[in-house]
Amino acid sequence: MRLNAIGRDFGSTKALENISLEVRPGEFVCIVGASGSGKSTLLSLIAGLDAPSTGTITVDGARVHGPGPERGLVFQTGALFPWKTVGENVAFGLRLLRLNRAERRDRVAWYLAEVGLRGLEGRLPKELSGGQRQRVAIARALVCEPSVLLLDEPFGALDCQTKDDMQVFLRQVWKDTGTTILMVTHDVEEAVFLAQRVIVLTTKPGRIAAELDVDLPGHRDLLLKREPDFLKIRAEVDDLVRAHM
């Protein structure tokens, strides 16, 4: 996926300016920045929900002109259909693909097992915890097997313990599926724990201030957050965010 000189103006206000970025296949990248840095605006542009004022976005060599099945998107709230069951929510996107009933059933079952929700196919979203609802949203985004999974503050509304658990879960899903992930978050600790590379944005307008490779073990558990190497990178990213507010 490539972003070339992306800008987004809202009237006389520049939200984003000259954003150029390449995300390699299978890479996990997090974008961080203070409020007003345009993180969610940038993700909306990549998702095709909005159009850039300047520049181009390409995924798999094709220019983005709107939403498409090659890009899965998960919001902070999950945005599940409350009247549909877990299985029906996950299967929703498959209507765009040429799959027979058995193929759809098998794919839904695999991704529900992958996110730890086997046996909950018949439940409604209101019967699930917040973390479970986000797992459904992630399964729904992955079931079409997109080239890129876009995550917009997906754990921002969860309590601290559930958020930690979901971070470990997401790392495992990424390793199992090999999906390219681009995630925006205001949580520096979360970004450092999850990503292979962290992009720091300035504010008003949002520009790329820094790119940092996260030189930490591939296998990560919550104890890593107490390690000196982790704390050093976290402090470095936190200082960069504060310096460019």
UniProtKB/TrEMBL annotation:
InterPro entries: AAA+_ATPase, ABC_transporter-like_ATP-bd, ABC_transporter-like_CS, ABC_transporter_ATP-bind, P-loop_NTPase
Domain ABC transporter intervals: 1-228
Regions annotated as coiled coil: none
UniProt xrefs under PROSITE patterns: ABC_TRANSPORTER_1, ABC_TRANSPORTER_2
Domain of life: Bacteria
Gene3D superfamilies the UniProt entry points to: P-loop containing nucleotide triphosphate hydrolases
Keywords: ATP-binding, Nucleotide-binding, Transport
GO molecular function: ATP binding
Pfam families: ABC_tran
SMART domains in UniProt: AAA
Annotated protein name in UniProt: ABC transporter ATP-binding protein
Species this chain originates from: Actinocorallia longicatena
